[in-house]
Amino acid sequence: MKRLILALPLLLAACGGAPPPPPPATLALTIIGGATQNADATGTAEPVAVRIYPLAASGKFNAADPYSLMSHASTVLGTDLAGPSDQVIVPPGATVHLDRRLPDGAQALGIAVLFRAIDQAQWRLLAPLTPHKPNDLVLRLNGVTAKLVPNIKKG
């Protein structure tokens, strides 16, 4: 009996093991195209490309011009890019959903909206990410502006 009492702490310690790893961060991005987004010379709304970058740091993204990001993002962003980027095409008035697991080390989300009149556009957006948690965001497009906000669900 005495041996059992002495061995009990060792048995309990062996059962504990290492704690499970934290869950990965996820992204749920809803992109809402506007009826007047990315208008051409006649005022007709056109589809627009949206590029999404998981970032370990935001300095190079903030300094980049849209043309460099379009042609060679991985070179421009270097180690600030935490993982693969995504691109979606958003038609006027459409809603597009993007759900993905975020790479480890992603601290921010960089979004480049490639408007036709990029020089007059608000094309670059940046949002902090919460590690090991769901990140639920809404991107609204209208004219040559883009607005990124948390998706606050009612209920």
From TrEMBL:
Gene3D superfamilies: Type VI secretion system, lipoprotein SciN
InterPro entries: T6SS_SciN, Type_VI_SciN-like_sf
Residues in the signal sequence: 1-18
UniProt keywords, alphabetically: Signal
Family annotation (NCBIfam families): VI_chp_3
Lineage: Bacteria, Pseudomonadati, Pseudomonadota, Alphaproteobacteria, Acetobacterales
Keyword Signal: yes
Listed name of the protein: Type VI secretion system protein VasD
Top-level division of the source organism's lineage: Bacteria
Coiled coil: none
Source organism of this protein record: Acidiphilium rubrum
UniProt-listed PROSITE patterns: PROKAR_LIPOPROTEIN
